[in-house]
Structure formats: structure tokens, C-alpha cells
Amino acid sequence: MTILNAEERTRSDLAHLIHPLYHPNDHQSPHIWVEGHGAIIKDMNGKEVIDGLSGLWNVNVGHGRRELAEAAMQQMSTLAFTSNYTGSSNLPAIELAERLSELTYPSINTFFFTSGGAESSESAFKTARFYWKTQGKPDKVKVISRKLAYHGVTLAAMSATGMSIYWPMFEPRVPNFLHIESPYPYYFQGGDANTSQGVAAANLLEEAILREGPDTVAAFIAEPIQGAGGVIIPQDDYFGRIREICDKYDVLFISDEVITGFGRTGKWFGLEHWGVQPDIIQFAKGITSGYIPLGGIGVSDKIHAAINTVAPEKRWMHAFTYSGHPTSCAVALANIKIIEDEGLVQRAAEMGTYLLDRLRTLENLDVVGEVRGKGLIAAVEVVEDKAAHKEFPASAKVGPRIYKEMLDRGLFTRVRGDVICIAPPLITPADQLDRIVSIIGEAIPAALQA
Ligand SMILES: Cc1ncc(COP(=O)(O)O)c(C=O)c1O
Question: What percentage of the chain exceeds 70 in pLDDT?
């Protein structure tokens, strides 16, 4: 049967598809996207909107890049897939790993590939536990993360994720995962004349490690900028103190760069803003600009040495069918070439400043508590009471109403609570960034009047 229009497609979708974070009530009139070019996407009814979140924080080089399609076609017609299990390798995976050793932190030189972010979280947690077992510390198994963190939704990743809305219908969570407060500068209460807010927020990690016992803690995981939690940018001295604490108590520091990697923040990787290096990095999304699934982890030389020197019967027994997928790796190489050739990391820094300056004009609205951003990732925090930093009650549904008003005006992005998240493609032209700001400026008052 040929299905002709959007209404019939929607009926078919409702009958046969389960979507991420699904409830059919929210899916009665979905946008069925059919085309994308640059920072613009178009639905089946011909409506065009600005893709204000780069898909899901991932389409860094923008939509419709033929170079990436050609890289996939070239690799698929040469060798689409071969296993990368021990004893086998392939040329794009080797080249990509070498390239990443040049692009990521000096501490990170060796890589394992996955198909996405959650698999990368799982790989990082298992590698941290593996490492401590090789060091004769088998009880170091706990993972500490932060409230409002998002690390994916497979069981262990969900347990590290600090947004409790993801838990209830899938509990019990995996044991040995715990959360400390986010450093969220707009809300964080802490610090005094002797201790800055950032150091006070980081010290919560030390308190948690001491409470749990350092001999039980394998790793601390953090996104350099908490993305899905509401684009939370930590205080400038936060991660330096985190690194000190991890070193002091022999806790591995995992940097989850699934969103902050590959230029999003105006640096190749997020922790570069604060001169800190992790023991494990995890990435996905922007490595292929979302054109094909790929993620992975990179490990420090000491972890690599542990993997290399363990007895064969204690090997790093971790794997995915699609680890080191040749086509995904070929697309990643082509994507990295675009980012380099077009200077997109620098562009994200420059246009990020441009966007932030303009977004700051929205602080004149009496419900905009804070505008924040770094590179081309930004947020507008909408609150009921600016002086008291007090949120609207969730029942007021301010965020969802703003979302609808933005979409009606041609901006597609996400809200977390009443925080409007913005992360357009790194190629977004200035006039479209201006349009993002003017749409948000109209949508907020319209939503509050509605
Ligand atoms: C920081 C971070 N980690 C992990 C993930 C999970 O990635 P995936 O959805 O590919 O499993 C995400 C997804 O948004 C993310 O933002």
C-alpha cells in the first residue's frame, strides 16, 4: 500500500513505531522531517524551521553535506563492514584512532569505538573497574556522577544519569552509582570568604569519596558542560579542583564529551577551557555529525598499559559488533576534515560570542533569570522570580509552552524544565542566529500570556 500524506504516515507511525521517551499522547501530530540543509530542516508539510539543537546536539557540520555521503558510499562500496575483534582491524578505524590521539588531550592516546553515547558510558565504567582490578584494587567499583547529568539510558548509564525522571519505571538502578550536587552556578549555594563556589562544589566530590571510602570508588564522571541537564557551565575553578581530588584519592576522572566534543564549545574538547585532562574521555554525536552512528572512549597511557600487560585470561573482555565499524570511521574522518578545513572550532568560538551577546538582550525580560553559553552551546533560564532565583512550578508548564511558541515561529529546539537549550550547527549563518534570538524573545512573552 502506498501511503501518501502526513496524516496517513502518522497513523502508520502510531501503529508501528516506539520513539525515544515515548508516550502516544505527545505523538499525535509529530513533525515528520524529510529534508535538511545547513541549519534548516523541513517537514513533510513543507514547513521549514531552524534546527536550534543540531538534531540532538550532534549535526555539527550542518545538514546535507555530500562529502559525508560520499565518504560512506566510498567505504561501503569498498568494504562496508568487517569485524574489529582482536586479530582483525581495518584502515579507517586505524586512521581515526591515530587522528583522535592528535586531537584529544595529550593524556589520551588510545581509543575503543562504540555505536553511541550510552555504549561509551558502559565502556568507560567497565574500563575503570578493569583498571583497578589490574592494580590489585578489586573493590574500587563505585562511580560517582552528578545531579542533572545525562550519560545515556542503558542500565548502568541510566544509573549514572542524574535526572531522576529517567529512573522510576526501569528501577531498580544498578548498584554502586551515586550522585553529588551539580555545580550549577545559578542555583548552587555554597562557598564562603575562603572557598570559592566552584571549589565548594568540587569539594562535594571529596566528601562523597570519603563517605564511601576511597578504596571503593573507581571513577568520577562529568560532562564538561552539562548538556541535557540544561547547559550548565561550571565555575572556572571547578574542574581544576576535581582533578586534584581525583588524583588525591586514586579515582579515575571520566570526561563525558558526547556533546562537548568536536568543536561545540569553541575548543576541540570541553575541558580544554580549564586546562584539565581526564583519564578517560567518551565521545559520540559530533564525531560523525550524526550522519552515521559512532561513539567511543579514549584512555590514558596508564590505562592502555594495564590493558596491554594483563595476563591473557584476564583480558579486557569487552566488545560490540560495531566497534570500529569501517563505514562509521570513514565518515568520522571526513567529518573531522570538514571541521578542520572550514575552521569550525574557531567559528564556534566566534559565533558563540556573537550569539551570547545577542541572547543577553533577553535578560531585559523579567522572567529571564540567566543567559549562559560557551561556543555554540547556550541556554536561556526562565524563572518566576529573578531576585530569588525561583523556578516556576512544573505544573505551570512554562517550558513546554515556550517550546510550542518557538516551534510555531520556526525554531526547533529542546527545553529542560524552563531552560531553553540552544546548540545550532557550527556553520549556522549570523542572520539565522539573529532569528533564533528574536524567536525566543517573542516566544517567552507569548507563552506566558497564553
Ligand atoms: C553527555 C552525554 N552522554 C551520553 C549520551 C548518550 O548518548 P546516546 O543517546 O548516543 O546513547 C548523551 C546523549 O545525549 C549525552 O548528551
Answer: 99
d(CA 439, CA 402): 10
Q: What's the pLDDT at 113?
A: 98
- pTM for the predicted model, two decimal places: 0.97
Ligand 1 centroid, distance to 263 Cα (angstroms): 16
Nearest to 353 by CA among 282, 265, 417: 265
Phi, psi (5° rounding) for residue 378? -150, 165
Query: Considering only CA atoms, which residue is closest to atom 1 of ligand 1?
Result: 258
Cα-flanking dihedrals φ and ψ of residue 81, to 5°? -150, 140
How many angstroms does the Cα of residue 1 sit away from the middle of ligand 1? Answer: 37
Cα–Cα distance for residue pair 127/109, rounded to 1 Å:
15
Q: Is the CB of 270 under 6 A from ligand 1?
A: no
Distance of CA 165 to the CA centre of its chain: 18
Evaluate: CB of 52 within 6 angstroms of ligand 1.
Answer: no
* Nearest residue to 128 via CA among 282, 295, 280, 323: 280
Residue-level pLDDT at 2: 55
E strand or H helix at 368? strand 368-373
From 259, 281, 291, 414, give the residue whose CB has the most ligand 1 atoms within 8 Å, as the site to mutate: 259
Task: For residue range 270-325, list pLDDT tens digits in order.
Answer: 999 999 999 999 999 999 999 999 999 999 999 999 999 999 999 999 999 999 99
